[in-house]
Design goal:
CATH topology of the largest domain: 2,3-Dihydroxybiphenyl 1,2-Dioxygenase, domain 1
CATH architecture of the largest domain: Roll
Strand content: 35-45%
Shape: globular
Radius of gyration: 17 Å
Strand order of the largest sheet: 1-4-3-2-6-7-8-5
Oligomer: single chain
Number of helices: 6
Helix content: 10-25%
Number of domains: 2
Distance between the termini: 29 Å
Largest sheet: 8 strands, mixed, barrel
Number of strands: 14
Order of helices and strands: EHEEEHEHEEEHEHEEEHEE
CATH class of the largest domain: Alpha Beta
Length: 254
């Protein structure tokens, strides 16, 4: 069963600069280490709700990597991963729902303290990337992969809603209804010129929205970036301020 957001992926052109900027916004950012053999390295922002944000950069050009092309188009929020309590069963459920997703693949990275982190994941492919999830199962344990430091000076405690821009609401509604065994809720998002469907997965929500007739931020995003994650809201305590979007490296954060 799909249980919650595992993490959100933010692709950045300069990981060191992104780390400094997110720390300046009041986040606790922990170096993650290098993914051996795939040309990437990361830093992590973990939350009290057990989700986290992955800031990922490239230490060498890798045009074959799934996040390289989105980075060339501006980077920012490019993908999302869901937690599962049964990787194989959920992989089959995704395929039955119509999602193009690959077989489980082993991956690992070495943390700065020398600890090797290992996991398996199955990746949505082609045009389904970033609209359908990828899913993950830990080999060395989730507490080895996710930092223990989960409090932030800005008061953020977790992820609220991820907004995903899509072109075909009917198709996406069918995927998630079949995967989750329930219908989503119809929504309208006039502030971005969109309408669509909301699905809750554990403590988190996903708004899959397509443009309504006329121009608007969502239509402009789809024209530039295609179907993909558009924005994220974060849960925070009273008095928290909106982040300076000039320092979020292309991510719409509320």
């Amino acid at each position: 069963m799909l249980t919650a957001i595992d993490h959100l992926v933010i692709a950045v052109s300069n990981l060191e600069a992104a780390t400094a900027d997110y720390r300046g916004l009041g986040f606790t950012v922990v170096p993650g280490g290098r993914h051996t053999g795939v040309g990437t390295y990361n830093a992590l922002i973990a939350f009290a709700d057990a989700s986290y944000i992955e800031l990922i950069g490239f230490y060498e050009p890798r045009p074959d990597h799934r996040w390289w092309a989105p980075l060339q188009r501006g980077g920012g929020l490019v993908d999302f991963c869901l937690q599962t309590d049964d990787l194989v069963a959920d992989l089959q459920a995704l395929r039955r729902a119509g999602v193009d997703i690959g077989d489980p693949e082993p991956r690992h990275r070495t943390r700065p303290d020398g600890v090797e982190v290992r996991w398996k994941f199955a990746l949505a492919r082609g045009p389904h990337r970033g609209v359908a999830p990828f899913i993950i199962a830990d080999v060395t344990g989730r507490d080895t992969r996710v930092p223990a430091e989960r409090s932030h000076a800005n008061g953020v405690i977790g992820v609220g809603t991820v907004t995903v821009a899509v072109e075909d609401i009917g198709l996406v509604r069918e995927w998630y209804s079949k995967m989750l065994g329930r219908a989503g809720d119809e929504i309208r998002r006039p502030e971005i010129g969109g309408a669509g469907v909301r699905f809750s997965i554990g403590p988190h929500a996903f708004d899959f929205v397509a443009p309504v007739p006329g121009r608007g931020p969502l239509a402009d995003w789809l024209a530039r970036r295609g179907p993909s994650p558009y924005a994220v809201s974060l849960k925070a305590g009273a008095g928290a301020s909106h982040p300076d979007l000039s320092r979020t490296h292309g991510v719409h954060i509320v």
